[in-house]
Design goal:
Elements: E1 4-9, H1 15-25, E2 29-32, H2 59-70, E3 75-80, H3 85-89, H4 92-96, E4 99-104, H5 107-117, H6 128-142, E5 147-150, H7 151-156, H8 158-169, H9 196-200, H10 214-217, H11 220-237
Parallel strand pairs: 1-3, 1-4, 2-3, 4-5
Helix pairs in contact: 5-11, 6-11
Length: about 240
Amino acid sequence: MNRMIALWAHPRSRSTVLERVFIERGDFEVFHEPFAHMAFNEQSAIPHDDLDCGLPRTYEGIKSLLRSTRERRHVFHKDMCYHCLDELKADADFLLEQQHVFIIREPGRAIVSHFAMFAQMPLHAIGHKALYEVFCRVTKLTGKIPYVINGDDLANQPEETLRRLCDHLQLDFLPEALRWEPSCPPQWQAWRSWHKDAERSTHIVASTSDFDARQLTAHPHLVGYYNTHRPFYERMNQFTQQGRS
């Protein structure tokens, strides 16, 4: 039977570059944030490009698409839990039929990056809380701690991080999938403006700048966002796989 792998993320977690590795592998049908299409339309203030890309706009429709695709190919989808949180938590069957990977990033860095893209972002869209809720739901359903990657580990040690992930998922590690030509994969067209750096990249790149907390404190509401989501990051970060045997 073909498999379905879900990469659950929050915005600006480095999830898109991990998705790019799976696009380069070539052995999965890759979907980029299909559940986001539940939440947005052409009038949305959130930066977007071409939302008329043929994806369904309902939870059941998106789930049906993923399942039908799985009948002919392995499926990998990257999604944000906050787009479909209530539906996911209530859908044990769908959660149990997937392999789950969670990716997190220190919320200060993620918030600053998110704010630069969309200054009107609401509190829940920071995403760590929703991610943690689905993490807990999967843990309860399976009796096992799901696999967690820290996005900064991915950036700083990409080959080691990907080897460990492939071992966990029982996939062949394909080192050639860590290099690519600069381009915009078709999956990114709807949200292209969010992924300019990833589009210009040729491989996973470490951050070249230190985080400056003044980028948060200059906007008091961002400090509140940080304080709300930091505890959920800390709870999940204790389960990251980097450096573990």
